[in-house]
Amino acid sequence: MGRRPAAHQRAGLGVADHDLAGLGGGIDSGYETHVQTLVSLCQGVRVRAAAGLPLPLSHGPYAAEVVTVGANLRALTRDGVDLVAGTPAGEICQSFRGAVMAPWANRVADGTYEFGGRQHELALTEPARRNALHGLAHWVDWTVVEHTADRALLRHELVAQLGYPWPLDLEADYRLGDDGLTVTLRATNVGAEPAPYSTGLHPYLTVGRRLDDCVLTLPAGTWCPMSDRGLPSAPQPVEGTPYDFREPRPLGDLVLDHPFGGVADGATATLTDPDTGRSVSVTVHGGLPWLHLFTSDPLPWGQREALALEPTTAPPDAFGSGIDLVVLEPGVPHEVSFTIHGTSGVTGS
């Protein structure tokens, strides 16, 4: 019989953040009992939920839940009707549903880029496509700064590291009000040198039916053709293309995983069920000239059941192209915000 590790190693005794939920699998009952006895004697051991701490919010007809892992938006409803397709409660986030993307949004090609006269190399977190995907803030447990009935403010101190050697203070501020959920993303460079930066949120919008039957309104003047690696070429006008949704029209079977640019401050994008009037919208308030749309076709949990509509400061691979790349100067805060709101299809709402 192979040698078992010491009981304290198997149980994670004295390590407060060890997940003990799966210890029983493949362990004989006597050893399992011994482990459970030791666990019961150990002070301070706890089981950490996969999504971290849930932070419920409510205001009028709206309710939401933010979780501390990734500062993710897990749920948003109006009159009890879903406006976003979030990860089931307590589960590990799939497909970046509701994720804060920072210090870059979407992809960095080959995980490499040049900034400040130096070459930097990131881990390839989308290895099949050889990209670094969606930043460094998703798989960390953010600190709760404030939690009230209608507000959750979370902070993460991003340390300087290989591939991204700039320390940042990041904040995700969620506020529910009469007009819906306003999300504010802040970043401050607490290092000594300028830092490259882009950011955004990754909500999947839903009106409760397949996207083929939905109507999309998208106030964007340009779009970017995409490679099979999810990397954009130069922006092109939407006029005269299948990607022009400046006037409301059905999505049909159009497959999207594309960035759309030229989005003005105060612009609103809307997904609508034309039969019920149920809708969900994103209104940008400044500093978010791009909306990345993804029709979720390859996802096992929601093929064309939800539309990722991601307000971002820049298109994918901005670290390589420089398009709308934000440069964070030391000590100078950066802030962007947008609001998600909708109608439930319930009479009068």
Automatic annotation (TrEMBL):
Output one GO MF annotation: carbohydrate binding
One BP term from GO: glucose metabolic process
InterPro entries for this protein: Aldose_1/G6P_1-epimerase (IPR008183), Gal_mutarotase_sf_dom (IPR011013), GH-type_carb-bd (IPR014718), YihR-like (IPR037480)
Classification via Pfam families: Aldose_epim (PF01263)
Q: Which CDD domains match?
A: Aldose_epim_Ec_YihR
Annotated protein name in UniProt: Aldose 1-epimerase
| Species, as recorded | Nocardioides agri
Lineage, uppermost ranks: Bacteria, Bacillati, Actinomycetota, Actinomycetes, Propionibacteriales
